[in-house]
Write a sequence for this structure.
């Protein structure tokens, strides 16, 4: 039986657990908003038309921060259409949708309060620019006495929304993006927009668009150029990444290796620009779209008619997907010193942990469980655990460690998160843990026996403690959480 070992020592701290790592994403895409989080007339809605079954699941999942309203959608969006009594119906060119604008900024903000989450707004830098971004910010955050803030008050929202986190557009490097730009064009626009937005509200935090994924031909050069333009004006640089199995389970189970390299490459690029510009300030990362997405099964939408709330990319997830999602969360935590924000894309129906039937039930997908357990138990400080163990050979990523792990500690409580990436071999894990405390509890999602089953509720995992050493056996292709409270 292959053996692996790690050490939990409070001296090896990486960074505090930033609660913003447990973010999600609500885009006006498919059925994420309409019949996802919002469905007036559904038997389980509140007075605002919000689905209370979805709200309860979002709270159970432990989602902390929600990015809105896109995604590709934002690059053709007029935010004014979604406020006040007159809501024009428009064509959404990004996803070939009929957008009724029944749900807009004020509805989203009411929903964030009901869900207990922090909003993260994106401005349109595709078809629009600096002025509209400032108008939106004035409407949202200015107390009153001006055109846009008084309009908000007239729309029934007396207090400013005080939205702190703002994205300067979405995936502006992608040729598919409405209003796609070169790095130099976007860098200048983002810098000027950021400076002006800070004049409206100096307390905001701004996210600059990085690459849409690390496979983009402009990856690296894009980050360097946009940062050279906007370094002083922004706080974070974005990363997006989606992964799929596509007939290669061993490679897919190692997807987090790529996420890990992607993060390290973007950190290096940001720090290179800092050195070049002689800056002390560090740019941190916002991994504001990540997930499993079976995109090779996505047929595209170019030949589809325009429809309201169409069924788009409603992937059904498997046990293997849950293991990989658990590994992504481990990876994000391991980079907690530089990754400050992360949003799983998306919350409801669109490649989502929560699925709904229009007029019917809402349910948890397999990937819900590792997210919910990590968000609940990963608290306090992230610890580097220095795992040792066998290596796996993959055609996608070359050599990859079989064990992926991270830990957190908060006072006497400990949480160890671990993934065995081997598709067919269990792994005997020993871990030195500090101090004494209550009993250890283990839970596991094991995909090895049937990786494509679509149910993956966690089961108990046997954990023994001998002196200061914990022993457990991680089944093939499994994600595990061990806690001591
Ligand atoms: O999350 C789905 C889409 O993926 C988003 O609209 C876009 O930003 C990304 O390419």
């Amino acid at each position: 039986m292959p053996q692996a070992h790690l050490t939990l020592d409070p001296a090896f701290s990486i960074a505090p657990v930033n609660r913003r790592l447990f973010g999600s994403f609500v885009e006006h895409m498919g059925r994420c908003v309409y019949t996802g989080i919002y469905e007036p007339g559904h038997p389980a809605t509140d007075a605002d038309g919000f689905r209370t079954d979805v709200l309860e699941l979002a709270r159970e999942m432990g989602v902390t921060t929600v990015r809105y309203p896109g995604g590709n959608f934002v690059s053709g969006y007029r935010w004014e259409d979604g406020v006040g009594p007159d809501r024009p119906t428009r064509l959404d060119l990004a996803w070939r949708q009929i957008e009724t604008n029944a749900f807009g900024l004020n509805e989203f903000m009411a929903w964030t309060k009901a869900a207990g989450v922090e909003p993260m707004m994106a401005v349109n830098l595709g078809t629009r620019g600096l002025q509209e971004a400032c108008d939106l910010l004035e409407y949202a955050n200015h107390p009153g006495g001006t055109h846009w803030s008084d309009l908000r008050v007239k729309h029934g929202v007396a207090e400013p929304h005080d939205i702190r986190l703002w994205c300067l557009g979405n995936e502006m490097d992608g040729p598919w993006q409405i209003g796609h730009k070169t790095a130099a064009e976007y860098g200048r626009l983002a810098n000027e927009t950021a400076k002006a937005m800070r004049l409206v509200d100096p307390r905001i935090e701004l996210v600059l668009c990085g690459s849409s994924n690390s496979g983009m031909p402009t990856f690296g050069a894009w980050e360097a150029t946009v940062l050279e333009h906007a370094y002083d004006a922004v706080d974070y640089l974005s990363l997006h990444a989606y992964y799929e199995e596509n007939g290669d389970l061993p490679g897919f189970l190692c997807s987090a290796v790529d996420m890990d390299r992607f993060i390290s490459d973007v950190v290096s690029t940001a720090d290179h620009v800092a050195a070049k510009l002689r800056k002390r300030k560090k740019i941190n990362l916002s991994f504001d779209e990540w997930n499993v997405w079976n995109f090779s099964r996505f047929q595209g939408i170019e030949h589809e008619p325009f429809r309201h709330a169409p069924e788009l990319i409603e992937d059904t997830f498997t046990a293997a997907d849950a293991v990989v999602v658990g590994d992504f969360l481990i990876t994000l935590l391991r980079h907690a010193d530089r990754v400050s924000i992360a949003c799983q894309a998306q919350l409801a129906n669109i490649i989502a942990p929560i699925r709904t039937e229009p007029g019917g039930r809402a349910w948890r997908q397999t990937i819900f469980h590792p997210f919910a357990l990590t968000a609940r138990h990963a608290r306090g400080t992230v610890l580097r655990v220095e795992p040792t163990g066998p290596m796996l050979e993959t055609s996608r990523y070359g050599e990859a460690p079989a064990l992926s792990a991270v830990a957190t500690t908060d006072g006497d409580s400990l949480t160890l998160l671990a993934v065995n990436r081997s598709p067919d071999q269990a792994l005997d894990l020993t871990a030195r843990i500090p101090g004494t405390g209550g009993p250890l509890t283990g839970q596991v999602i094991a995909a090895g026996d049937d990786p494509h089953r679509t149910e993956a509720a966690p089961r108990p995992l046997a954990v023994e403690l001998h002196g200061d050493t914990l022993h457990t056996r991680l089944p093939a292709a499994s994600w595990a959480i061990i806690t001591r409270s």
